[in-house]
Write a structure and sequence with these properties.
By secondary structure, the chain is of the alpha+beta class. The chain folds into two domains: about 1-115, Four Helix Bundle (Hemerythrin (Met), subunit A) (Up-down Bundle); about 135-235, Nonspecific Lipid-transfer Protein, Chain A (2-Layer Sandwich). The protein has seven helices and five strands.
């Protein structure tokens, strides 16, 4: 992230319309400082206010990253910590979330300068897991799902994930009525898939996050399902 930033801060970021690389650093610097407070001091979700740097944005970003890393390293992954994801209230959630948040914005900064760098395959596979388990698809606890018949299989060299196209309906806690909202439901396995999307773990992870084109992957079967999944992902990530 630092290396990309030092190539130029005032460059537009194509994957974050309206943002420059400077905006990316300010955004990520604030997030890193927030999570340092959350982990170190038990701060729960609230509006944080950090004074933005007067001059060296890159140095300010580096300081925030070090604060976050120091906080995470001071705890065990199993130690309790507030998170916005109810099933996981541990420091480990933030270890993972900050790794992937930083990775995706590093790629954003690199794409602003023309090309993304290498992405570690182990981290990319975990990024796919995180995206599918936490962000993409599923349905709220107030909703009623309706599972469809169409199945999408995502595959890398060593892993596969099965997603069933579905919809959900219900009334939000604010009273808004929603009907037949498109989603996908992660399944443990399916004997057959209507669409298979195969590729390098990094390409698949970045595609799910809208940072790589589908042309970096191999799509077989019903290509409309690939577009369907990307639309669901775009509303979730």
């Amino acid at each position: 992230m630092e290396a990309a930033a030092r190539r130029g801060l005032d460059v537009d970021v194509p994957t974050c319309p309206g943002w420059t690389v400077r905006d990316l650093l300010l955004h990520l610097g604030r997030i890193h400082r927030e999570k340092a407070l959350t982990v170190r001091e038990g701060v729960t979700d609230r509006d944080f206010h950090f004074k933005e740097p007067a001059s060296d944005v890159v140095e300010w970003f580096e300081e925030g990253a070090e604060l976050m890393l120091a906080a995470l390293r001071s705890k065990d992954a199993t130690d309790p910590a507030w998170t916005w994801h109810g099933p996981d209230q541990t420091v480990g959630f933030w270890n993972r979330r900050m790794a992937h948040e930083t990775l995706i914005h590093r790629v954003d900064a690199e794409l602003a300068h023309g090309e993304a760098g290498e992405v570690d395959h182990v981290i990319a596979e975990d990024g796919i897991d995180e995206a599918l388990e936490i962000f993409i698809g599923g349905y709220p606890d107030w909703a009623t799902p309706r599972l469809g018949d169409r199945v999408i299989r995502l595959s890398t060299s060593g892993r596969s994930w099965w997603l069933r196209a579905a919809t959900f309906s219900g009334t939000t806690r604010s009273g808004r009525v929603l009907e037949d909202v498109p989603t996908v439901v992660l399944e443990s396995e399916s004997p057959a898939a209507d669409c298979e999307i195969t590729g390098d773990p990094a390409a698949l992870d970045l595609w799910l996050w809208g940072r790589a084109p589908v042309s970096d992957l191999t799509v077989s079967g019903d290509a409309e399902l690939a577009a369907y999944l990307r639309n669901v992902a775009a509303k979730s990530t």
